[in-house]
Every structure is written in structure tokens, then in C-alpha cells.
Write a structure and sequence with these properties.
single chain, Dihydrodipicolinate Reductase, domain 2, 4-stranded mixed beta sheet, 6 helices, 30% helix
């Protein structure tokens, strides 16, 4: 059976769901990052794993130019949106925490970094299967940065710009 009741039963017993086709395409469509006028391509497979209050993603990327792992980490560590400079009340001091611990990120250990407003990235390594490729894992809090507090941060930003 492929109904919600069956899925709920599986999740309650600690099983992972690997077929959630209704989420694969929206995940790709909604997260197409733009670099200038060019679009990056995203491919995703969404799974449900019984973890409380966190999204964990395994990410594989191909960069436009060669880079070292240290350059990628430096880029993450220095990443800041315009709203970071505005020192908004719910804005964390950084958006991305980079971990060198090979066993991190972990949802229960990293989801509440800076009140759940930071994405923790780890396990960065070269991916020889792709041109200029890297792979990494990230954890973010789905009900704080991903929803409630993230929405408040966006509202603060829009108010600061005079849209609200």
C-alpha cells in the first residue's frame, strides 16, 4: 500500500521512506540557485528518515572552475547575505557553520546552532565522479530557519527595505 497511513506506520517504527516522488521535482525546482543569469542544475532524491526537527542533505556539486576544499570552506565561512550587514534581531552572526569533524553534522547535535538559524556543513571531500566536483553533508533546522524563525527574518529584512 502506498498511502499516508502506511507511510506513518513505517516512520513510527524507525524505517526510512525512499520513494517520495511528489517531493523530488519541487525540491529541484524550488532550489535552483542563480549565479548571475545562469542557472545551476540540481538533481535530488528525497527521502523521509525519522529525525526530529532537522533536514539532512547529501549534496554533490560540480563547480565552474577548479577549487580546493579549503577554498570551498572559506567561501562558506565568509558567506553573508545583505541582511547579515543589517544586524536584524533574528539574524545569526553567520549562516553557515563548517565542521571538520568526520562524524558531523548530526541532526541532534547541530540543528540548534545559534538558535536553529545556522546550517552546519561537514564531510566536504572531492568528488572525482564530477568535473571540479565536491560532495558534502548539511543539517539545518526545519522548523526554525526553515519555517518560523526564517519567516520572521525575511519579514525583518523586508521591513528594513521599506516593503512592509
Amino acid at each position: 500500500m502506498r498511502n499516508g497511513g502506511q507511510h506513518s506506520h513505517c516512520m513510527a517504527h524507525g524505517h526510512s521512506l525512499f520513494v517520495i516522488s511528489r517531493e523530488d521535482n519541487p525540491m529541484c525546482d524550488q532550489n535552483q540557485p542563480r549565479v548571475g543569469r545562469r542557472r545551476s542544475r540540481i538533481s535530488a532524491t528525497c527521502m523521509r528518515v525519522p529525525v526530529l526537527e532537522a533536514h539532512t542533505e547529501a549534496v554533490y556539486v560540480s563547480l565552474r572552475r577548479p577549487a580546493t576544499a579549503e577554498e570551498v570552506k572559506e567561501c562558506w565561512q565568509n558567506f553573508a547575505g545583505e541582511f547579515m550587514e543589517l544586524k536584524l534581531p533574528t539574524c545569526p552572526s553567520r549562516l553557515i557553520e563548517v565542521s571538520d569533524d568526520p562524524f558531523r553534522p548530526q541532526p541532534r547535535l547541530d540543528r540548534n546552532t545559534q538558535g536553529g538559524m545556522v546550517t552546519t556543513v561537514g564531510r566536504l571531500r572531492a568528488d572525482p565522479a564530477q568535473v571540479n566536483g565536491f560532495k558534502y553533508v548539511l543539517v539545518s533546522h526545519n522548523t526554525k530557519m526553515g519555517a518560523a524563525k526564517g519567516a520572521v527574518l525575511v519579514a525583518e529584512y523586508l521591513a528594513q527595505l521599506g516593503y512592509l
